[in-house]
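User: Show me an example of a complex going from sequences to structure tokens.

Assistant: Sure. Here are the input components:
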Amino acid sequence: MLKIIYLLITGLILILSIVDLFKEKNWRNQLTHLIVLIPLILRVLLIK
Amino acid sequence: MELIILIVMILAFALLVFLTKFPIGVSLAISAVLGALIAGYGVPVRHLVEGTFAYLDPILIIATAMIFMEIIKATGALGEISRLIIIHLHDRPFWMLTLITLFIMFPGMITGLSTAAVLTTGAIVAPALMHLGIPRVKTGTIIAMAALFGMVAPPINVPAMIIGGGVDMPYIGFELPLLFASLPLAIFTTLAIGYRYVKSVDIEKVLEKLPEKPEYRSAWRLFLPIIILVILMLVTRIFPSKYTSLGMPLIFIIASLTAFKSGKNFNFYKVALQAIHDAMPVMGILVGIGMFIQIMTLTGVRGFLIVNATQLPSFWLYIGIMISLPLFGAISSYGASYVLGVPFLLALLGQNEIIVASGLTLVASLGDLMPPTALAGIFAAQVVEEKNYFRILKVCLPYALLVAIYGIGMILLANVLEKFLIV
């Protein structure tokens, strides 16, 4: 149960990060979003 | 060879941050790739991805804690706490300043970020502190220093998590040592700077500058999210055999959900998005540090640093801690905690590791006052509308020195303090 809840929390943060990525105008800051997305996406997809 | 790789990685990092203005997290990631290239590993994607996972737990904690902070700011709970402290304690300056210090520290305590404390509670109390009679620069100093101590104080101390992660030490049992490291110094610093100005206060003038009283049905309902947060955090620690540990991210989410209809209405999506936007640079730094350290480990640089740190004579080791940890903090106090904190902890094996790590994080926190980044100092200057943040850093200097000496004292006396602070 806790695992599913934590996947949902990670998913929520992932979605918010993606929305914030598209709202961000500065390409350097967009790179920050991209590196943060790597672990979040892999965890939500249960790849790692 | 390891020394050359280390120098190239640090130089590349510094150039990327200061000359090309890349964000710190991205600069760490790029310099990690450069380090791997120079060491002949090409672009080791598997290691780089592995590195991004090193601090996934602190990332989730910071993200959810920032959501919680934004929500209780939006409901008006934070502003109301500030108002109540000043209204009820203006004639008791010692207790007022003590509670204001704890209030400023609070976001730092639950997010592990000094900037969260400066920009939320720091910004809320700044006008009130100035109208209590404390000069602008000294108000900025109080906020910057309290924010630093908030970052060190439990329950969340990211540098301690980072150092612990580096030596496979779980983040358990740090509460009392971190309280000992932060609370006495925080109260002393605020009183030393501000007490003489608040002995007699014109409460009417101060009230004009405080945030308006938010509309709420009862104080209990307004503060319920904070009460639930504290209860959930304590109950799993006090009764570990009865209640399953929920983990900090879930606790923050539960506390956030209880904030609906507690005070002013707010849009969860907008508030959460703003929180993630504010937390993004720090999450990026944590991902970048993870990649940087993974490559340091791959190329042997980490081992090189540890071997050399453990061979330093003890006098120079302590001097090294006092100087290099805050200096490296100019880049990132989190980076300093891992790159230097872990070797220093390993060099001090034999002392109680939890207390040594707590002392190291106290010294490392000074990095947030170190120019040119000086996050706590710069944001505190913004909050009090002081153009030259060096004026604030100048007032911080003696207290920063005191913090460094206190941290070294904790490390030297770790085995004595162990009897009192380790439960």
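The lines above are the inputs; the final block is the predicted structure for all two components together. Chain A has one domain: 14-48.
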